Amino acid sequence: MSHKVNLDKLDYQIIQEMMENAEISYADLGKKLFVSGGTIHVRIKKLEEVGIVKGTKLSVDLKALGYDVIAFIGIYLEKSSLYDTVAKDLRKIPEIVRLNYTTGNYSMFAEVVCKDIQQLRFVLHDELQKIKGIERTETFISLDESFSRNVIASGE
């Protein structure tokens, strides 16, 4: 977790612009925000140092790469104190792309991306079954992703 940092309007504008297009050059971003490219560079360096900006990620169309199955798995633990151990084991399964510690019915909620149902079956039947501390799971297959977006960065 990052510490509470004093950010100004320019910092929030930089974050918002970079979330929309991480490939924009510092010079072009500076022109857009009416400051120098050097100022943008210094601000981004500061945002990286305090842990707000964590590098850039390439946005990929998973379906175009042949990943046709996205599923969410609600995981019930035998004891909630097993979370860290189970999370460490789940991290070793490459098909799990996101894991959250949650309130509600499940102790954990995982997002899984697979090429097909056979691969999902392998993850559920062979991989998850090996992990000690998981009492049971409930799987939800995504039929369609309506949208995915970043939060709007604002100082309010």
UniProtKB/TrEMBL annotation:
One of its GO terms (cellular component) is cytosol. The keyword Cell cycle does not apply. One of its GO terms (biological process) is response to amino acid. Residues 7-68 form the HTH asnC-type domain. Keywords: DNA-binding, Transcription, Transcription regulation. GO terms for molecular function: sequence-specific DNA binding. The keyword Repeat does not apply. This is Winged helix-turn-helix transcriptional regulator.
